[in-house]
């Protein structure tokens, strides 16, 4: 596979020499504008860092079942699926609470985000997304804690003003063979000269996932999903806008398939799995160069995670509930200090309130309540001030910035009593770019990052991932130092982006076994800042338009991670992976065959070797072929995605469920 992959890109590099001759054609790669890298609009070609942009058009082409699956195949992103109702993106070898997820600039990450793969990204309705931006290797200076591997931002659709009152609507129906999906989505948009509104409802029923070849139906893995969203825009003046938005997702009976299959559970599911977000955003320009644009965002977010479990043959049902309520306030100021100098500065405040409980119900007896996974009524205050600057001098561009972040964490632990800790972090970044003729960008960058200890790190008490964990309140922030060099090139017919990086990780928080202690026969662990590691790698993204209607494209990413403290690989490092494909697009229709691949991963940490989700000796490599086709008119659209044409049995490394087998996913869209 590696030889084929290399030959593919050698071919693309060869034909790139002809790209400058096709001035009438345009590539999508590097032709977008992103806001995530510097909290300000910037051409992706000119950004001194690795940024991928997944546009609304791309989402329409792929018709992803869930938001995590919208990232599958994206350059430098590897999606692990613990179960069908989950999906955790790896950015440069890190995932979970070591990557940062934003919705419209607001943190999805809260103080109970777990280390390792999780399900939180799946609580975002894919029908609400207008664009996804992935910043690999940075984000702590701009957005704060957790961006050790990078930052993923989901930007939702906005209604538009119109000179005359207008009404538009859309209805979507999707069906997958084997009853793997039955979805209905209805949305409406109302607009006027000063007021615009959009809203929608999604009803999605997912059946058990059917794998390839000999896997068959993986039961239980299906679940139900209900979502609602609304956004209201007011034009307060010709330039100032007030946005009011709300979104909510409720998922019920989301089974953890591998626990049924491998761990002797009669019942193990998330029920419910809920998230809601409401926010306002006030933004507009001023006449001052120091505040050319001001944005004020206030947000209220709530998550509710319930877990039900019962072992086979047991009469005891365990119900655990964790609720987090988060309020946030962001003030961001854009400054055009000089013709060659602009900046983005501001303050952020987030406050979490955590509620956690556990109830054991034995058949024929009353319920017994006890301490939940986290100390009940825990409080987590996160406050910061930041400033990012860009200077452009002729063909040179310089970027630099810094952030101070403080935390105030209060818990009332029934084991250790009242505890209050106040960790702080100071991080910075810098980059240099050489921009030549609006076609190329040679750059080098440095990003320092951090992840502050959260309630999950400090307050966990109970069984987690086959271990019994005790609270730990003397933890320090994890830190990262990411070095990157890269090259970007874009003409009308050819585009490419390549990067080499090394991320040095320090003070990593890990579970350390407490010698000689067992609870109910299970080894006891406590978290400590005792490890350091590094992850290095390479990424390549290429696109070539070779005729009026045809293009070929491909991407790949390689990560090598080493835990220096243990002298072993970093846990769950993805193998070499990527995609390549061909697209024919003409007028109202398109056809797009594509192949996704991953090499085998046999470099395993001790924790990987003991993980029942990873086959003995490592995860086999695979190639999966899909075919997408669509037809789009003014009033209706038809999209079809034929998955896994060879019916390959495969699993992304570390996942608890196999990928989908040969199947057809059909989407019908009506527009008025």
UniProtKB/TrEMBL annotation:
Task: Show the PROSITE patterns listed in the entry.
Answer: TONB_DEPENDENT_REC_2 (PS01156), TONB_DEPENDENT_REC_3 (PS52016)
What InterPro entries has UniProt attached to this entry? Beta-barrel_TonB, Beta-barrel_TonB_sf, Plug_dom, Plug_dom_sf, TonB-dep_rcpt-like, TonB_rcpt_CS
Membrane topology value: Multi-pass membrane protein
A molecular function annotated in GO for this UniProt entry is: siderophore uptake transmembrane transporter activity
Q: Does the keyword Transmembrane apply?
A: yes
Q: Name one GO biological process term.
A: siderophore transmembrane transport
Q: Which GO terms describe its cellular component?
A: cell outer membrane
Q: Where is the TonB-dependent receptor plug domain?
A: 45-151
Q: Which UniProt keywords apply?
A: Cell outer membrane, Membrane, Receptor, Signal, TonB box, Transmembrane, Transmembrane beta strand, Transport
Major localization class = membrane
Q: Where in the cell is it found?
A: Cell outer membrane
Signal peptide (residue range): 1-19
| SUPFAM superfamilies associated with the record | Porins (SSF56935)
Q: Which Pfam families match?
A: Plug, TonB_dep_Rec_b-barrel
For the TonB-dependent receptor-like beta-barrel domain, which residue ranges apply? 208-645
Presence of the UniProt keyword Glycoprotein in the record? no
Question: Which family is this protein grouped under?
Answer: Belongs to the TonB-dependent receptor family.
Q: What is this protein called?
A: TonB-dependent receptor
Source organism per UniProt: Dyadobacter chenwenxiniae
């Amino acid at each position: 596979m590696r030889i084929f992959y290399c030959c593919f890109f050698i071919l693309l590099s060869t034909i790139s020499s002809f790209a400058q001759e096709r001035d009438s054609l345009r590539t999508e790669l590097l032709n977008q504008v992103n806001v995530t890298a510097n909290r300000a609009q910037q051409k992706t070609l000119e950004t001194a860092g690795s940024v991928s942009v997944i546009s609304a058009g791309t989402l329409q082409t792929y018709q992803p079942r869930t938001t995590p699956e919208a990232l599958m195949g994206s350059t430098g992103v590897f999606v692990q699926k613990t179960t069908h109702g989950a999906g955790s993106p790896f950015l440069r070898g890190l995932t979970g609470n070591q990557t940062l997820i934003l919705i419209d600039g607001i943190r999805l990450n809260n103080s109970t985000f777990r280390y390792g793969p999780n399900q939180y990204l799946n609580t975002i309705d894919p029908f609400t997304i207008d664009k996804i931006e992935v910043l690999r290797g940075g984000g702590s200076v701009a957005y704060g804690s957790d961006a050790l591997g990078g930052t993923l931002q989901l930007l939702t659709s906005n209604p538009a003003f119109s000179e005359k009152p207008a009404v538009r609507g859309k209805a979507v129906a999707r069906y997958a063979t084997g009853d793997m999906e039955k979805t209905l989505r209805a949305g409406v948009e109302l607009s006027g000269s000063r007021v615009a509104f959009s809203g929608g409802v999604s009803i999605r029923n997912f059946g058990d996932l059917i794998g390839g070849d000999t896997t068959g139906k993986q039961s239980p893995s299906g679940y139900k999903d209900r979502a609602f969203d609304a956004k209201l825009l007011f034009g307060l003046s010709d330039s100032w806008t007030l946005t009011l938005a709300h979104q909510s997702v409720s998922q019920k009976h989301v089974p953890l398939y591998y626990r049924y299959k491998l761990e002797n559970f009669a019942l193990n599911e998330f029920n419910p799995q809920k998230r809601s977000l409401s926010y306002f955003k006030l933004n507009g320009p001023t006449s001052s160069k120091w505040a050319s644009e001001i944005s004020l965002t206030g947000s209220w977010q709530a998550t509710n995670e319930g877990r039900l479990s019962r072992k086979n043959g047991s009469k005891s049902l365990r119900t655990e509930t964790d609720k987090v309520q988060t309020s946030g306030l962001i003030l961001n100021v854009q400054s055009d200090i000089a013709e060659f100098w602009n900046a983005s500065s501001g303050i952020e405040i987030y406050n979490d309130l955590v509620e956690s409980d556990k109830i054991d119900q034995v058949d024929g007896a009353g319920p017994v309540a006890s301490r939940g996974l986290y100390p009940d009524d825990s409080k987590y205050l996160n406050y910061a001030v930041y400033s990012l600057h860009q200077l452009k001098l002729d063909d040179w561009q310089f970027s630099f910035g810094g952030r101070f972040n403080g935390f105030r964490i209060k818990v009332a632990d029934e084991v250790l009593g009242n505890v209050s800790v106040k960790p702080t972090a100071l991080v910075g970044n810098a980059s240099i770019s050489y921009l030549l003729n609006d076609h190329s960008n040679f750059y080098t960058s440095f990003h320092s990052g951090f992840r502050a200890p959260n309630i999950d790190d400090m307050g966990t008490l109970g069984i987690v991932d086959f271990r019994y964990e005790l609270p730990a309140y003397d933890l320090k922030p994890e830190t990262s130092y990411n070095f990157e060099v890269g090259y970007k090139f874009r003409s009308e017919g050819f585009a490419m982006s390549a990067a080499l990086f090394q991320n040095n990780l320090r003070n990593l928080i890990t579970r350390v076994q407490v010698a000689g202690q067992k609870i109910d026969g299970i080894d006891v662990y406590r978290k400590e800042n005792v490890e350091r590691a590094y992850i290095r790698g390479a990424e390549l993204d290429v696109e070539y338009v070779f005729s009026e209607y045809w293009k070929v494209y491909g991407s790949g990413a390689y990560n090598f991670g080493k835990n220096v403290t243990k002298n072993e690989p970093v846990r769950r490092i993805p193998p070499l992976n990527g995609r390549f494909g061909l697209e024919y697009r003409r007028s109202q229709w398109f056809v797009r065959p594509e192949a996704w691949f991953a090499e085998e991963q046999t470099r395993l940490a001790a924790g990987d070797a003991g993980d029942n989700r990873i086959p003995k000796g490592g995860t086999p490599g695979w190639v999966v072929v899909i075919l997408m086709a669509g037809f789009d008119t003014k009033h209706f659209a038809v999209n079809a995605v034929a998955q896994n044409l060879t019916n390959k049995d495969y699993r992304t490394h570390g996942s608890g469920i196999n990928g989908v087998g040969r199947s057809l996913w059909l989407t019908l869209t009506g527009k008025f």
